[in-house]
Write a structure and sequence with these properties.
Elements lengths: L15 E14 L2 E7 L4 E7 L5 H9 L5 E10 L7 E12 L13 H6 L1 H4 L3 H22 L4 E2 L5 E2 L11 E4 L2 E5 L4 H11 L1 E9 L12 E10 L3 H22 L1 H6 L4 H5 L7 E3 H10 L12 H9 L5 E4 L12 E2 L2 E5 L1 E6 L4 E8 L4 H10 L8 H8 L5 E7 H9 L20
Parallel strand pairs: 3-5, 6-10, 12-13
Antiparallel strand pairs: 1-2, 1-4, 2-3, 4-5, 7-9, 8-9, 10-11, 11-18, 13-16, 14-15, 16-17, 17-18
Helix pairs in contact: 4-6, 4-13
The protein binds 4-amino-1,4-dioxobutan-2-aminium adenosine-5'-monophosphate and magnesium ion.
4-amino-1,4-dioxobutan-2-aminium adenosine-5'-monophosphate binds next to strand 11, strand 17, strand 18 and helix 13.
Length: about 425
Amino acid sequence: MKQTYISEIGKHEGQKVTIRGWLYNKRSSGKLHFLQVRDGTGIVQCVVFKGDVSEEVFGRSDAATQESSVVVQGVVRADKRSAIGFEVGVTDLKIVQAAQEYPIAKKDHGVGFLMDHRHLWLRSSRQHAILRVRSEIVKACRDYYDERGFTLVDAPIFTPTACEGTTTLFETDYFGEKAYLTQSGQLYMEAAAMAFGKVYCFGPTFRAEKSKTRRHLTEFWMIEPEVAFYDLNDDMDLAEDFVAYVVARVLANRRPELLVLERDVAKLEQVQKPFPRISYDEALAILKEHGVDVPWGEDFGGDEETMLANHFDRPVLVHRYPARCKAFYMKGDPEDALKALCVDMLAPEGYGEIIGGGQREDDLETLERKIEEHGLPKEAFEWYLDVRRYGSVPHAGFGLGIERTVAWICGLKHVRETIPFPRMLERLRP
Ligand code: 4AD
Ligand code: MG
């Protein structure tokens, strides 16, 4: 008999169905076994009544262990107490494989233990909800650009140069030559924007982050739009519209998952345009009000970002940071050479930076000088300088970190649960 997915079970009320999945949980009382069966699309209670089934089937239900793989047949009936509104009256049960004693029990395990068992932890309803939200966010990000005339241009993973500073590079041997895992697809998107106008890339990026924080992974996913003829203001408009869209999509399509995560959705519903926009100088003043003195010229650390983000009820755009704390490719502010035409978006509720970007230096000589000032090897950037030699135009873009966005939207304390198999300073396994 054809398999019915639990998410579709409501369409089969009164009918006999076959469900294939895993035993999530079980409760028994005399003549009854209540099996919670999950199949990846949902969880349904399957009731085995002694009077309805053969002795073998009742015995198998009795013996079935947590996470055993099962094939259940039964009749779908409405049930008001059920979270999904239905349950299954079992007529037959087969065990595909009887699971050994499952290491993840109901009791509280430490995060280290759960992380070591990440391959199994993914089966829990909380992790399930988080990764379904992640999947929706990724789809929403892609749809946003696809529906607005952007072309997806994939950036390489092996790169000969640094994009975001040389201290976080993962080096690897490339047939006797040094190569690095990409920190960002941006430089390639700049070239692609001159070919296609509006482009984006989406892929994994790598940073050898040696500090343990709740916001840093060594491998994370980033979506990076880049647009020819955009200036900083256009860039901020795009970032704002994009993030409002992504949040609205999750609210529209993943409410049940947000409920599982006990997310306060009212906070997400506030994420409406326009977002506040403040300069770095204004941000310093806000920090000062909170008793934090950041000397002009310093970048914000995690604590300062948390404080700034907490100051607003929706994401805030902080623009025009001091050039000296930003990357070599940033265009200088024509009104103040010490500042860069850049922008960070900080998510509310203390989440901090989710987007970094800005307008790019489009003048050949200025860019050559900046590459030199940053001590970067000019030869390796000749191709990038070509973008300024042949029809250079103002252009801008940004990168949104998927994991930090998932952490914020799901309301999680740490990014480690936002990606199926996290890579961090002390975690390469499983
Ligand atoms: O601010 P970043 O470093 O900007 C860039 O890489 C630009 N080249 C992007 C561009 O303009 N095309 O990183 C962008 C975002 C951050 O705001 C953050 O969300 C995320 O990437 N990010 C990280 N996420 C998790 N772990 C890390 N170690 C991250 N580093 C950056
Ligand atoms: Mg940044």
